[in-house]
Specification:
2 copies of one chain form a homodimer. The longest helix of chain A is centred in the middle third of the chain and has 29 residues. Chain A has a two-stranded antiparallel ribbon. Chain A is mainly α and 324 residues long. Chain A contains 15 helices and 2 strands. In chain A, α2 packs across α6 and α8 packs across α9. Chain A is globular. Helices cover 74% and strands 1% of the residues of chain A. In chain A, a hairpin with a 2-residue loop joins β1 and β2. Chains A and B meet through α4, α6 and α7 of A and α4, α6 and α7 of B.
Chain lengths: 324, 324
Amino acid sequence: MKKLEELQEIISEAVTRLSFPIHPAELYEPISYILSIGGKRMRPALLLMACDLFGGNVDEALAPALAIEVFHNFTLMHDDIMDNAPLRRGRTTVHERWNKNVAILSGDVMLIEGYKLMMQVKDHLLRQILDIFNNTAVGVCEGQQIDMEFEQRNNVAINEYINMIRLKTAVVLGGALKIGALIGGAELKDADLLCDFGEHLGIAFQLQDDILDVYGDPEKFGKQVGGDIISNKKTYLLIKALELAKDHRAVELNSLLNNKQFDNVEKVRAVTDIYNSLNVRQYADTEMQEYADKAFKALDAINLPDEHKQYLRDFADGLMVREN
Amino acid sequence: MKKLEELQEIISEAVTRLSFPIHPAELYEPISYILSIGGKRMRPALLLMACDLFGGNVDEALAPALAIEVFHNFTLMHDDIMDNAPLRRGRTTVHERWNKNVAILSGDVMLIEGYKLMMQVKDHLLRQILDIFNNTAVGVCEGQQIDMEFEQRNNVAINEYINMIRLKTAVVLGGALKIGALIGGAELKDADLLCDFGEHLGIAFQLQDDILDVYGDPEKFGKQVGGDIISNKKTYLLIKALELAKDHRAVELNSLLNNKQFDNVEKVRAVTDIYNSLNVRQYADTEMQEYADKAFKALDAINLPDEHKQYLRDFADGLMVREN
């Protein structure tokens, strides 16, 4: 079996070989630009990994893996417009470097290019794989819409939040694994189980991200610790705290969210104190573990040799204890 | 053979039956909204027409026809953002009624829904039809990008303009006809010829639109006569006039384009006078006729009974002498 790093390297190298027409330049240059910004190429690597695990030829999964990466970057290009983000991984976003119209239209073409790449599968898999891709793509759009709606709401429930991160983040992981498994020759039942594994792991991973944003080691966590608190982002921790806080704590938490006079360090400390007093970290850890357990349960049921399952377990473990 | 009006009616009725999920509301309501604004449903009707002409079952072409209509409305939703358009057919545009983020994301989902509908064809046609759809969709995006670039340029050549309207307007007509023909059982050669017919006719139609905007009967022309002149739109007429105007006429034309002190009536009259003095209408008529001739030449070569070809000739004639 190929190592994850090896698969990521295959993708990175293939991305640099992806070529698009030269004209119209403002339509195609942003595609090469956003793809060059990089990232861990985790989604397409998972697709290759699934193919490899079921004994498939990784070369046959390369175009669909690139489709997932192109699709993912299309969502980033459009999300960055919607979020008014000036930077992505330290580089100027497309709508800032060119303009919003360029980012809209270039993103549209990326989605179509994603379909073109995804279609590079054998005929007998074409419809099945495109159905998965369609459902994945619709899910991601729904997740983004729900996430934007959350910004305007103060009564988000935990189950709504879990559904949002499932759609926005986890379905792509599940979809990538399922497509890779089918290309690798897996039975539909096993491909579905691997999809469940990826989806549950994706939810656990996002919950861990919420936890690390507050409790992570600043030396190891890639982003600014407390960033979610500063921006009032509705994470699992904040939603749980809003649900649990009563009386003076509720008043204090709402004051911290609504007043702009606090400096950031003070706000992070005060909100973290409230989180601690309400034990929200423990709730989050428990929920995260539940989804990790569901992922492992799905994995156990897959018809794969033990050493292949162990590979996936090690991968999941590596994902879940990162950087804190 | 079914009449065009009958096919348009089938589409209109089917569009009202298209249903999308209720949640998230801001993702799906704009889709139903923009589809309800209406229009002539010409593109999907052409797809059904092509299927019918080759003896196919129109019911089998209905989902792909709806795909073309959903795709077309996706392009309208995103184009309206890019053009800052407040109204479409007298109704508030999606980005005005909701906001730009809603229009971006809802449009994205429409493109995916277009693929889902387009996939409702028999297995042996799936790849071929999706390839046509992909090429059509990329072409439309390229056309929109080139059109936006033209706004910033003063040296657009006629052949660049023709290529732009081919991409932005004509390839969808060609693509719709080709897909319909294949579903109807046409040989690829005949489907390609019908595609050429549609593409050339689309170019001729757009050139006629440019002419009618200036020379149309205000009673019969749907839009404000002279609207293109008022907005300095780079139509065939303006590009040809800029190419032909020398000395004082060139100075006068550029002054009319660059100064904002002219009132609209005065500007339309003065620019039309320049067009007349340079015979640009005759150039446009000649070019339009050339593309109409190319369309009819493609039609002649198609392997179809004479009465079916006559049907298409009558359709083209009806399209080319409308409302002036």
